[in-house]
Each structure stands twice: as structure tokens, then as C-alpha cells.
Structure prediction request, 232 residues.
Amino acid sequence: MFSKMQTLEERVLEARGDREKSSTLITQFKPFIASVIQKRLSRFVEYGVDEELSVGLLAFNEAISTYDADKGKFLSFARLVISNRLIDYYRKQSRHAQGITSYDDEEDIATSAAIDKKSVERFSYASEAEDIKFEIIEYASELCKLGIEFDMLTRVCPKQADLREQYISIAKQIAENTEMVEELFRTKRLPIKKIEKIMAVHRKKIERGRIYIIAIVVAILKKYSFLDLGRG
Prediction:
């Protein structure tokens, strides 16, 4: 399956054309899909009950199939695709209900173009708060796999700026060392002996900053754009 070191965007690119991996991502992000649709409809939706969620699942799969790195953050792109497919769904439902098979005149076409333009303008830039929420959920999940609770970070973050910067520097060097990263995820522990040898840092200092260093390593590897642990 996916590598633990991959970002979401890297996982999506790997899932393109792979039905099993696409299905895994869709299942993982069903809460995200529901959240986008609930926000759009301003009401609660439920899988197996609301047709809009089926539209959302298909749209998310489309987003996986058509995503590339130039499109920016995947969740922002997926939100746009879901929102636009939902608009298409309601437009189709409306035409069906009224017995309309095509736009009758230039005014209808102009109206449709205006709606599409407005939808793109409205959803092309994702809600920052929404992205933060799902990024933190994913981050907390990754930390949990390493035995770290997200709530612990505020307690273990060094108060001294110089110490904090030193731990961040250590984390960056670990993140750039494939062997140490693999050992970290395999053992769920920092490779302290290797860090001592390569970075000439005292063992006790590494142990005191263990949780914070691991958290920074994960944040660097996953490229969480909204998380700035360096600030404390």
C-alpha cells in the first residue's frame, strides 16, 4: 500500500489508475466528502440516504484521476471538483423536472456561464479553516501511529527559541536521511545513536526533545503547510 513517508499529494498521484489505492483514499476521506457537501447544502447528509453523497464519492474519484502537482493542495482541488459536480447534479435535476433537454436561447447559456464562473470563483480557493481541520486530523493520526498524542505538542514544545531551533535543525537532518526515517517509522523511536554520531548532539538533549523532534520530522515529511511547529 502507501508508504508512511508519502504526502497526501504523493499518495494521490500514486493512486491514479490504481483502483485499489483510489478506493483506499476514498474510504479514508469519506468524512471530508460529507463535510464539503454538508457545507454546500447547509444541512446534515448521511451515506446511504442522500444521493448527493454518491455524487461526492464519484467526484472525489474524479479528482484523484485528474489531479497533478500543478493543481496545488489536493484537498483544495477535490473540494472544487465536488462542488462543481454538485452544481452539475442540481442543474441536471432541475432540467429533468422541468422537461428541459437543452438551453433554449443565448440568455440561458449566458446564465449558465455566469453560474459556472461564480462557482469556480467561490470554490477555487479552499476554506483555510476547513483545510486546517483536515490537515490536523491527518497529522494527529500520523503521530498516533508513533505513540504520540497531538495534545502533547503544546507541553513538549521548548520555550527557549534557541533550543527549539536546534531541535528543528535535528529534525530536518533526520527527514533528509532515508535510513534514519525508515528506522524511526519501523521502531517508533528516534535513532539516537546515529543522531549522536552524525550530528554531535548529546544523548540527554535528544531524549528530552524526543517527542518534539519526531513531531517535526512528521510535519516536514508530510509537508503540512498550515502547521508551523517552529513557532511554539
About this structure: The first helix runs from residue 8 to 15.
